[in-house]
Amino acid sequence: MDTQQRRILLLSTSVVYGSEYLHYATDDINKFLKKYNVSRILFVPYALNDYNEYANKVTGAFEKWGYKVNSIHTSEDPVQAVEEAEAFFVGGGNTFQLLKALYDFKIIDPIKKRVLEEGIPYIGSSAGSNVATVSICTTNDMPIVHPPSFTALGLIPFNINPHYLDDNPTTHMGETREQRIEQYHRIPGAPPVVGLREGSLLHIEGDKITLVGKCSARIFSPGKNPEEYEAGSDLSFLLKAV
């Protein structure tokens, strides 16, 4: 695997409070796509049930920026669509549903090959960021369907918890996100997890990763105390997680 080909932008969410769809990440998305001369985007809408409605929403956003969007669900051959894509945008929704579809349509390996071996840009948001990781074990979503495996695309060697929330003391006695991630890390071999707060992005190029946005991120590693990293931090050490 030639990790120098890796060109990935992972968003915690598509919408932040009080803002339009993808608006908070407009500059980062455009800078990322223009750097690689992208004009066409293959959208993967499988995380939601109404593919047409979802595709229309995404098309409206990207067309304003001058990009043409093709949704993979309109293709007769999803594998061929992946093989011809200039860039991928994998949208948010339910992570289990998204991953199951990636397996059902047999595009796990084709996407991984194009991103890691051919340098095709990949943008993920929420569930689309989850499936870029080692596994979907740290998603916040309910398992409304059953994918054949929790193993995801493996474009990066760690996991993400999108929409990460800090503990907010109330009378609620359920586990915090931090406690749930600590439970996950009791499983032998579990990778590090990035608690990615709303409005934050991970920008990955080759073997370099930068935390982008206005918020810090909380990083959990097995056997260690969680650590906070401010926006703009170099998180390249995470790419050497395994």
List the helices and strands and how they pair.
Elements: E1 7-11, H1 26-35, E2 40-44, H2 51-64, E3 68-71, H3 78-84, E4 88-90, H4 95-104, H5 108-118, E5 122-125, H6 127-130, E6 159-162, H7 177-184, E7 193-196, E8 200-205, E9 208-213, E10 217-220, E11 227-229
Parallel strand pairs: 1-5, 2-3, 2-4, 4-5, 6-7
Antiparallel strand pairs: 1-8, 7-10, 8-9, 10-11
Provide structural commentary:
- This protein is an alpha/beta fold and 242 residues long.
- It has one domain: Rossmann fold (3-Layer(aba) Sandwich), CATH 3.40.50.
- The chain has helices spanning 26-35, 51-64, 78-84, 95-104, 108-118, 127-130, 177-184, and strands at 7-11, 40-44, 68-71, 88-90, 122-125, 159-162, 193-196, 200-205, 208-213, 217-220, 227-229.
- Strands 3-2-4-5-1-8-9 form a seven-stranded mixed sheet. Strands 6-7-10-11 form a four-stranded mixed sheet.
- β8 (200-205) and β9 (208-213) form a beta hairpin.
- It catalyses: Dipeptidase E catalyzes the hydrolysis of dipeptides Asp-|-Xaa. It does not act on peptides with N-terminal Glu, Asn or Gln, nor does it cleave isoaspartyl peptides.
Name the helix and strand elements from N-terminus to C-terminus, one letter apiece.
EHEHEHEHHEHEHEEEEE
Mean pLDDT over the full residue set: 93
| CATH homologous superfamily grouping | Class I glutamine amidotransferase (GATase) domain
Structural class: alpha/beta
CATH class: Alpha Beta
Which residues sit in consecutive blocks of at least 5 with pLDDT less than 50?
none
**CATH architect. name:** 3-Layer(aba) Sandwich
